[in-house]
Inverse folding.
């Protein structure tokens, strides 16, 4: 294993955002990187030709492009980036994000200062200049991790481009990462390591990337993402009691249940059947019990099973006002 830093970029069918991301890396001292691994999920064009023709030959020589023969889905493509990494340190970046101008320098200084840290999570900038800022704090176990996230931004953990992994420390937990299906595979290694109290992580107030909202709004399947997140409770954590697992699920919630229901009634073509929403409610949102969430579930049941569109009417009325 090389002792330096590699970047992994899972990508699918995002020509312009991918090139913009790579150019934001190229503007820095990219020669300090071991390599840049681009995992292409069977895009309908040749990613090798795209990268080669869009960037300098020096930068292209740092790139290793792996092309999947079939589209294996986003979470699986993210998981595979861990297998491709040959370096001690690994930076996983979404293909539609962009890194800050001093990101590489910031990371290299931090990994030199904290060589035994298993996981570094940085702050994130928004295009308007606002920073979603983390505290500068060390976390030693899973209970402390949950307590920290409860006080900050539940749901923010789904974002992956501000994470740096120490693969020497986290490779031990890759079997569990590969065994469980979840929309947030990048979080599993550190969750398991903290659960066993074998590693520590650090949050940082420094920002290393921007969050760039996808053009045209949300393009992913909200229900599928939330169902996959609910599978985190299937992981055999050793230090958590049932109430702790409920709290852990809480810090991964992207949205309150009312917004999930709203998305489902507006995107019925993406919702397989009512049973999926039923499973999501009892997997994440039923504990602690809130009457409004239970009522929303029953309104969705009327909508999806019996064609009584009360909820659709309510959301349309609310939007028009």
């Amino acid at each position: 294993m090389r002792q330096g830093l590699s970047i992994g970029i899972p990508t699918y069918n995002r020509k312009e955002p991918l090139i913009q991301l790579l150019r934001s890396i190229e503007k820095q001292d990219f020669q300090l990187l071991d390599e840049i691994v681009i995992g292409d999920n069977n895009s309908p064009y040749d990613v090798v030709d795209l990268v080669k023709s869009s960037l300098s030959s020096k930068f292209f020589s740092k790139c290793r492009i792996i092309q999947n023969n079939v589209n294996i889905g986003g979470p699986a493509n993210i998981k595979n980036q861990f297998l491709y990494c040959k370096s001690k340190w690994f930076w996983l970046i979404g293909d539609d994000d962009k890194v800050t101008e001093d990101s590489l320098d910031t990371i290299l200084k931090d990994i030199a200062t904290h060589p035994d840290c298993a996981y570094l999570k940085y702050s994130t900038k928004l295009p308007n200049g606002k920073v979603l800022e983390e505290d500068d704090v060390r976390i030693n176990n899973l209970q402390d991790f949950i307590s920290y996230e409860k006080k900050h931004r539940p749901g923010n953990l789904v974002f992956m481009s501000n994470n740096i992994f120490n693969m020497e420390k986290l490779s031990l937990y890759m079997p569990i990462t590969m065994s469980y299906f979840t929309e947030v595979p990048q979080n599993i290694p550190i969750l398991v390591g903290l659960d066993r109290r074998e590693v520590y992580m650090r949050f940082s107030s420094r920002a290393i990337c921007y969050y760039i909202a996808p053009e045209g709004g949300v393009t992913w399947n909200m229900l599928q993402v939330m169902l996959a997140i609910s599978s985190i409770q299937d992981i055999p954590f050793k230090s958590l009691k049932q109430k702790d697992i409920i709290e852990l699920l809480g810090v991964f919630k992207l949205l309150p249940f009312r917004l999930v229901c709203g998305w489902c009634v507006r995107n019925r073509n993406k919702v397989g059947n009512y049973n999926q929403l039923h499973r999501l409610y009892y997997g994440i949102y039923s504990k602690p019990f809130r009457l409004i969430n239970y009522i929303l579930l029953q309104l969705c049941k009327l909508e999806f099973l019996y064609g009584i569109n009360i909820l659709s009417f309510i959301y349309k009325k609310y939007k028009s006002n």
User: Anything to note?
Assistant: The mean pLDDT is 91.
